[in-house]
Amino acid sequence: MGVMQSVTVLGSTGSIGVNTLDVLARHPERYSVYALTANRSLDTLFAQLEQFSPRYAVLADIELVQAFAERVRKAGLPTEILGGEAGLCTVAREADVTMAAIVGAAGLLPTMAAVEAGRKVLLANKEALVMAGPLFMDAVQRCGAMLLPIDSEHNAIFQCLPMQVQQGNGQLSPFLHGGVKRVLLTGSGGPFRNTASAELADVTPDQACAHPNWSMGRKISVDSATMMNKGLELIEACWLFHTEPANIDIIVHPQSVIHSMVEYIDGSVLAQLGNPDMRTPIAHALAWPERVASGVGSLDIIAQARLDFEAPDEERFPCLRLAREAAVRGGTAPAVLNAANEVAVEAFLDGRLDFTSIAKVIEQVMAVVVIVEPHSLEDVQQADRESRVCAMKFILNKTLA
Ligand code: NAD
Ligand code: MG
After folding, report:
1. Is the pLDDT of residue 113 over 70?
2. Which cofactors are named for this entry (predicted)?
3. Whose CA is nearest to atom 22 of ligand 1?
4. Global ipTM
């Protein structure tokens, strides 16, 4: 085993961040925590600083830095406090490994900073890759970064790929170089898998966030309920594995025991199974190509007893269709889709938009905003801004068809 690696956890106070620290704490001889970052959960961050004594902590909101730095200094903690996007990018660049676990478009620049520094990047922040796919993957190649998927499905797919493709550092297409025929991307179907269309309009944020198998942040929980999460994951998989939507089948698998599958040209189908606990993909990506303990218990497959599969229902979950359309269209379409979704989900969580209108907002924004070929991150951010303004207008005016 090699030398100690320093790790930055972007979004350390969130669901993925906390799970990452749980795994890191099990292996102090392998990993040291370099930097932790948070948006609003300052008490959680403070407790993390007490436990891990990182070199830096970064607050996304620069206004909060001074008071927090004072609190940290008074407690005699050694951590230096930075702020803002510049601070996030600095700590993302400097560590050997960066866990990208900020939620949404806010994670784009810090994640790209780690990629451009040629680091090992553990990608949970799927929105960053969805928004900036071609630029993101170009940067991975150009800068020699190592990109490993944390999203459980993509991590499962990665594990089921041939070793030469895994070691091609995200540059070898499993379809061209590994005999892969298709990817079977599984999803639980979310909390409303069996809810009738007519009842979907009245579901509440708390119902949407009560996921049957996974405990996650609120934004991704709503995405799971609309199945936009599976749509974003389709786009994510196209970029990570150099393929088109036509080669990826979405399969509803309510038990979330199989995390995804890969079919080969000889008819073999490989699957990765395990308890639904994000510490497994986190530990896998951290240690790859080695293995370390994650704290996840053994899968009791006898108690599990059965595994069910069904086709997704795009009528009740139109976000799936919208995401597929954005994937096929390319250019800034996925960035537009993502931005409209973020605004609509926030409005739903705030009680300003009903559940079924989330897809309507996205559809309208995608019909209005002009799609271009992005040549720079600025082009992506421009599409993101424009789509947010457009989505907010639709929500305010309630001019939804
Ligand atoms: P979360 O809401 O629990 O945590 C988000 C983290 O990002 C927090 O630390 C928060 O402080 C930080 N953050 C939020 N807004 C920010 C901003 N504007 N600037 C800087 N930091 C900000 O979310 P999560 O469930 O941990 O998800 C994080 C990412 O991982 C998402 O992209 C999600 O899609 C992805 N992911 C999560 C899971 C899961 O099981 N939770 C699984 C797969 C992928
Ligand atoms: Mg997932």
Report:
1. yes
2. Mg(2+); Mn(2+)
3. 39
4. 0.99
